[in-house]
Write a structure and sequence with these properties.
With 154 residues, this protein is α+β, with helices and mostly antiparallel strands. The chain is built from four helices and five strands; from the N terminus they run βαββαββαα. A hairpin with a 4-residue loop joins strand 2 and strand 3.
Length: 154
């Protein structure tokens, strides 16, 4: 499965721990979406990442190839159970654009949060996983600067 990570799974150490078979494919852009924090993680006790449709905005992230034997574990860490009516996230297919090139679409799986009312902001550690991942994979400087401006909980 090709998987588009836009939140803390951009952090290579975390991703390899969760999915040992993960292989980097490319950086990519999800068009007409923006990064938001629409759920509270019970494990992390802070707001966690989501992407929300918004014309003219883009979310950058990482495309990984995930072996079938790791998909179930990835679903579990993302709070998604196929066939269940109540999930934290849902997994859907979308096109992203490799290296931001509109002529290089890639069909990937993306996790979208089931939004909650009044979720908290991310904490410093969670934000740092996102920023570190963006820097590690050399996402565009302007996008990294945008990530660095994310407000965190006190």
């Amino acid at each position: 499965m090709l998987y588009f990570a836009y939140g803390s799974n951009m952090d290579w150490s975390q991703m390899r721990e969760r999915c040992p078979t993960a292989q980097f494919v490319c950086v990519a852009k999800l068009k007409d979406h923006h990064l938001a924090f629409t759920r509270e993680s019970q494990k992390r006790k802070c707001g966690v990442a989501d992407v929300i449709q918004e014309e003219g905005r883009d979310v950058w992230g990482v495309v990984y190839q995930i072996d079938e034997r790791d998909i179930g574990h990835l679903d579990l860490t993302e709070g998604f159970r196929p066939g269940r009516t109540e999930n934290d996230y849902v997994r859907e297919e979308r096109h992203v654009f490799a290296e931001g090139d509109n002529k290089r679409p890639v069909l990937v799986s993306v996790y979208f949060a089931i939004k909650e009312d009044n979720p908290p902001k991310p904490n410093v550690q969670y934000k740092q996983l996102i920023v570190n991942g963006a820097k590690y994979w050399h996402l565009p400087d302007a996008y990294i600067q945008e990530l660095e401006r994310i407000e965190v909980m006190p």
